[in-house]
Amino acid sequence: MLNRRTLLAASAAVLSAPRVACAQPATPGVTATEIKIGGIMPYSGPASAYGVIGRLEQVYFRVLNEAGGIAGRKINFISLDDGYSPPKTVEQARRLIEQERVAFLFNTLGTPTNSAIVRYVNQRKVPHLFLSTGADKWGNPQENPWTIGWQPSYRTEAQIYAKHLLAQKPDARIAVLYQNDDFGKDYLAGTRDILGDRFERQVKTVSHEVTDATIDSQIVSLQSSGADAMLTATTPKFAAQTIRKMHDIGWKPPAHYLTNVSISVAAVMQPAGPEKGVGIITSGYLKDPTDSVWRDDPGMTEWRGFMQRHMPDADHTDGNYPFSYGVSKTMEHVLRQCGNDFSRENIMKQATSLQNLEIPTLLPGIRVNTSATNYHPIRQMQLQRWTGSTWERFGEVLEGARV
Questions:
Q1: Residue 292: CB partners within 8 Å, gap ≥ 6?
Q2: What angle do CA 150, 153, 157 make, to 5 degrees?
Q3: What domains can be seen in the chain, in order of their start residue?
Q4: What is the pLDDT of residues 364-382, one digit of tens each?
Q5: Dihedral class, residue 24 (left if φ above 0, else alpha if ψ from -120 to 50, else beta)
Q6: pTM
Q7: What is the reported pLDDT for 402?
């Protein structure tokens, strides 16, 4: 017969068994006191102008920690340099995920660089949140359910430019300078969406590599096409070169459209020569820090207060800072929305459950919306024109064609 001590021991074992079976594995990078986040930025290399985005993010999370963090946890943000080199991006992503064991990746920058790691992070089921690139493919939950962008799609942006141009001149000939990667090719796709079978007849395209020293020969080649409009789809260094070269050779087509990722006053327009880009059209979704219309705007007052207190020596005319503040604000909202569940599954669920989120640095009427089937958080933009000192908005808030 079983004695009383044996029965008690057996009962205790049975009672404790369900607790063991139901125990949830700990999320990498999450403890009772910390949430570890990984970032990858080009602090060096040909796209180093974007490095300020990562620098603000580091300050943002430090300030957030000083205010108490998230759900009693401090943010440990580890931001590494990849020099805008895809092989280095792979190396840094593996370091963050396998060695540092971050909970997720946040705002990693660049189309070619993110393309190099997207399959890896999705295989590992690591949230790959609010990428600093507008490639259209980051809005594809069927193929990459753990990856989501933030800014408007480059393809959407190109559609808006083409629609604006053709409304004025349906038979316009268009010259396109594009970076030879998914970033640049999205602008070709968006233009083709609008032109259809007229694309080959009306568009002259020339590409360049990110490793090129200059794009002077490409600009001369495009000038010879006799185009009515120029579309420049490249990163800040080459955008500044394009504006300067077009001015120097006296080529001023009636319309010049410039990708919105290369419109920083500090990083592009001033190095090019502010007077050389007068009349250039771009699209915006962020409030321009050089535009006096935002002098008393509550959102920009909040941003300026942050910059004055925590980054007083930074160039406050650089549009990359309002971008960084806006995407960091979005990330903070997602983390707060997680409650006390910081599993990778719930982080991804909350990142794709944003409803009409207002961000201080976004233009009026533009909101952040996501869902399980909408991985394009920001879909709207407004056209704006360079005056020689600032970007001046015109027209209505627009949305590209859905394809």
A1: 390
A2: 130
A3: 34-152+296-372 (3.40.50.2300), 154-284+384-399 (3.40.50.2300)
A4: 999 999 999 999 999 889 9
A5: beta
A6: 0.82
A7: 59
